[in-house]
Amino acid sequence: MLSVDEDEQETVEDDVPDDADMGMGGMGGMDIEKMMAQMGEADEEAEKIYQAVDEAMDLRRRARREAQEQAELAKLRAQRPKIQQQNKTEFENALDERQQLASGFGSSLDNGALTNFVEIGQAPDKILSPKLDQISGTQSTLNGTSTSVDPKGYLTSLDSVGIKSSAEIGDIKRARMLFDSLVKLNPKYAPGWIAAACLEEHAGTMVAARKIIKQGCEHCPKSEDVWLEAARSHNKEDGKIVLANAVQHVGQSVKIWLAAADLEHDLKAKKRVLRKELLREEDRLDTWVSDVETVEAKGRVAVARAILAFALKAYPDKRSLWRRVAELENAHGMSLENLWTNDDNFVLICPTQNSMAGREL
């Protein structure tokens, strides 16, 4: 009996399900799935947090990187600015704020004052009226209706109208290139500067001619011809200044002093200029006398006469020169009548001096 009960009990125990088996197969499986779902949500939230942190850090690094790049770019622009930036800076420095707002077209009329447009409209008439009157007078002269005709002035005005053909213009250009090369290769050659200036004068460009001859004076200061050409290409007032500068370099040139005297209007001014030359070149008298003795010793009497004649023009009141003339002519067969004529001329020029003839003959 006991053994039967034990067998039944074992059979009953085998039919009853185990708690562990129920937990894994039934209620236990549901808890694991829920737990896994919660862990997945926690991972997603963690991923979002990490991504937000990464984005924040990347934003901070990007802001720092952009600031550093801007600083390096500004430093590079300061060292090597663009042409557009340079022009903008020059524009800002050249114009004030009002002119900058007006795009550089600001003027004195922008201050709000009323503009007299009537006077502005009459300005061209005031300028053109004298020109029209001149043209009208010229037409009247051509038509024969003018009451007074100035043929000389009319012809002069026609000469001033330079109508050059294409061939002549081409010749001027070639000659200009030639003279330009000449003065560059040999800047000390004075005739080259004079020829280049004359070419520009012939072409009608007086400004260029004066500029060229000025350069010639700078390169050839000892050439009197260059200074004379420079004085000729200017008006009288500017010519006086040019010759005054020429005296500093070629003060011994008689041509320079005579040209300076010719630019003076009245006789007193001319004499004053020549007197300055005589005071400045007093020592030239001895030089001329020495030259006369040199050429006379070589038998060139005509040259000696020419030197004395030139010296007498500069120093007409020098008694020693007149005595030297008398000695020269007496030594080379001059007649007594001509010798007395020289003595009379000396007395006329130097009335306060005694006669030379009584002492020399």
Provide structural commentary:
Residues 1-21 have a biased composition (Acidic residues). Keywords: Coiled coil, Nucleus, Repeat. Residues 13-86 form the PRP1 splicing factor N-terminal domain. This is PRP1 splicing factor N-terminal domain-containing protein. It is found in: Nucleus. This protein has helices at 2-15, 19-79, 83-94, 97-101, 117-143, 151-160, 166-185, 190-203, 206-219, 224-233, 236-250, 254-262, 267-280, 284-297, 301-314, 319-331, 336-349, 357-360. By secondary structure, it is an all-alpha fold. Among the domains are: 30-61; 167-249, Tetratricopeptide repeat domain (Serine Threonine Protein Phosphatase 5, Tetratricopeptide repeat, Alpha Horseshoe), CATH 1.25.40; 284-360, Serine Threonine Protein Phosphatase 5, Tetratricopeptide repeat (Alpha Horseshoe). The radius of gyration is 55 Å and the shape is elongated. The N and C termini lie far apart (209 Å). The model is unreliable at 16-27, 138-149 and 346-361 (pLDDT under 50).
